[in-house]
């Protein structure tokens, strides 16, 4: 890709985010591009649910973002976001993320999330200058979290950063290499353990294949789309539309095909120009069947 091609992709990517100027490589610029990304490009698993998952490589994700397409889920979102931040001049590094949902999963070591750290931006409350940026949580934080142990409030939500397990035992402070994370109350996931375990491109490719094509993958069970607009966590999961804030939960069922498709496109901003009528029909039937089974089981 030539320099002019890179510039064109970068400008198109920023335009997708609603940004007319390149954000400066400052903390204010980082916050601006982070907020725009999680608000304007939805986290989604639609391509996976359609049986044609998109590539995980960062340039491919960045191209989908620049061309108005779906970017995807965690590995794809953060790969594209890493590309964007690097092109803007930020210092970005990667970490291994293990997302857990139940207490018995907390000490697992599976790579199921790509974690990004932007460094070199010290602030009064973060003298080390390391910031956790994340466009791939779906439900997450609207702007970067400082990698400082404690509770951090963003738009009324409290997110917790703790010491890595080894560091905690040795009494060392949290640093940019390893930490634990407590998620927002009421979220689907519970927390993340971040380490320097293998997070190479090959490891991510292997995990992506398992998550996008494996028979037991949670990403193949029900369609999900999410974005974060200030304090609002917007989600469509199956046929349930939810808007979560620090003080309210507005949840409703989408009861018709037209309502469901319109909500995905209009509320979640999900690009769907490549989805055929047959694919829509099949996905609706599967989603409706799963919703009815969930209903009959008491919505566990």
UniProtKB/TrEMBL annotation:
SUPFAM superfamilies registered for this protein in UniProt: Cysteine proteinases
Gene3D superfamilies to which the protein is assigned, alphabetical: Arylamine N-acetyltransferase, Cysteine proteinases
Family of this protein: Belongs to the arylamine N-acetyltransferase family.
Matching PANTHER family: ARYLAMINE N-ACETYLTRANSFERASE 4-RELATED, N-HYDROXYARYLAMINE O-ACETYLTRANSFERASE
Name the record gives this protein: Arylamine N-acetyltransferase
């Amino acid at each position: 890709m030539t320099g002019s091609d890179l510039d064109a992709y970068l400008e198109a990517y920023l335009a997708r985010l609603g940004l007319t100027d390149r954000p400066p490589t400052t903390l204010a610029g980082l916050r601006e591009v982070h907020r725009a990304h999680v608000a304007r490009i939805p986290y989604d698993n639609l391509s996976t649910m359609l049986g044609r998952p998109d590539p995980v490589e960062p340039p491919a994700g960045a191209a989908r973002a620049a061309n108005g397409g779906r970017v995807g889920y965690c590995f794809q979102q953060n790969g594209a976001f890493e590309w964007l931040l690097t092109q803007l001049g930020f210092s970005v590094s990667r970490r291994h993320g293990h997302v857990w949902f139940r207490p018995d999963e907390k000490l697992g070591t599976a790579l199921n999330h790509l974690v990004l750290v932007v460094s070199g931006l010290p602030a009064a409350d973060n003298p080390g200058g390391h910031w956790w940026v994340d466009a791939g949580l779906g439900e997450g934080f609207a702007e970067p979290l400082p990698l400082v142990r404690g509770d951090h409030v963003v738009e009324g939500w409290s997110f917790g950063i703790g010491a890595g397990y080894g560091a905690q035992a040795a009494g060392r402070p949290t640093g940019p290499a390893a930490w634990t994370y407590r998620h927002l109350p009421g979220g689907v996931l519970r927390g993340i353990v971040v380490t320097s375990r293998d997070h190479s491109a090959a490891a991510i490719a292997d995990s992506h294949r398992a998550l996008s094509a494996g028979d037991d993958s949670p990403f193949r069970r029900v369609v999900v789309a999410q974005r974060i607009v200030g304090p609002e966590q917007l989600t469509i999961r199956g046929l349930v539309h939810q808007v979560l804030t620090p003080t309210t939960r507005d949840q409703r069922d989408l009861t018709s095909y037209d309502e469901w498709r319109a909500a995905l496109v209009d509320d979640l901003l999900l690009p769907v120009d490549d989805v055929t009528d047959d694919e829509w029909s099949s996905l609706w039937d599967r989603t409706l069947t799963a919703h009815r089974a969930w209903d009959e089981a008491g919505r566990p």
